[in-house]
Amino acid sequence: IGDVLVIRGHGLKVEGDDAGVGVYFTGATAVRIKCKRIVVNEPKTLKVIVPALTAGMDYNLEVVTRSPVKGGGTTLRNPRVVEADFTLKAEAPSA
């Protein structure tokens, strides 16, 4: 929590001005928490500052973007969701 999380994959670049575009953590309560700060925003790498999450709780990771998977100059008409196939456990920042 509060540190940088590195996300690697394909077609990850967060593009589009839709309200729902961004990087989200979703917990068991189904509340989506949006990352407020994306440090690196590239097609194969995202680096985000982990927002305030409940320590010890498991979260799913989602990237919502209008960028195409294979790159290119145009954005998609509708946002697409990239979901991680694993869960993350939130840890309190070390003192």
Structure in words:
With 95 residues, the chain is mostly beta strands. The protein has strands spanning 4-8, 22-27, 32-34, 38-41, 45-49, 58-65, 80-89. It has a four-stranded antiparallel β-sheet with strand order 3-2-6-7, with no helix packed on it. Strands 1-5-4 form a three-stranded antiparallel β-sheet, with no helix packed on it. A hairpin with a 3-residue loop joins strand 4 and strand 5 (45-49). The chain is globular, with a radius of gyration of 13 Å. It starts with a strand and ends in a 6-residue tail after the last strand. The mean pLDDT is 90.
Mean pLDDT: 90
Largest sheet: 4 strands, antiparallel
Radius of gyration, in Å, reads 13 Å
Helix content: under 10%
Query: Got a strand count?
Result: 7
Structural class: mainly beta
Number of helices: 0
Shape: globular
> Could you list the spans in which at least 5 consecutive residues all have pLDDT below 50?
none
Could you tell me the strand content as a percent range? 35-45%
Please state the oligomeric state of the protein chains shown.
Answer: single chain
Q: Reading side by side through the largest sheet, how are the strands ordered? A: 3-2-6-7
Element string (H = helix, E = strand)? EEEEEEE
Amino- and carboxy-terminal Cα gap: 12 Å
What layout of secondary structure does this protein have?
Blueprint: E1 4-8, E2 22-27, E3 32-34, E4 38-41, E5 45-49, E6 58-65, E7 80-89
Antiparallel strand pairs: 1-5, 2-3, 2-6, 4-5, 6-7
Short description:
The chain is an all-beta fold and 95 residues long.
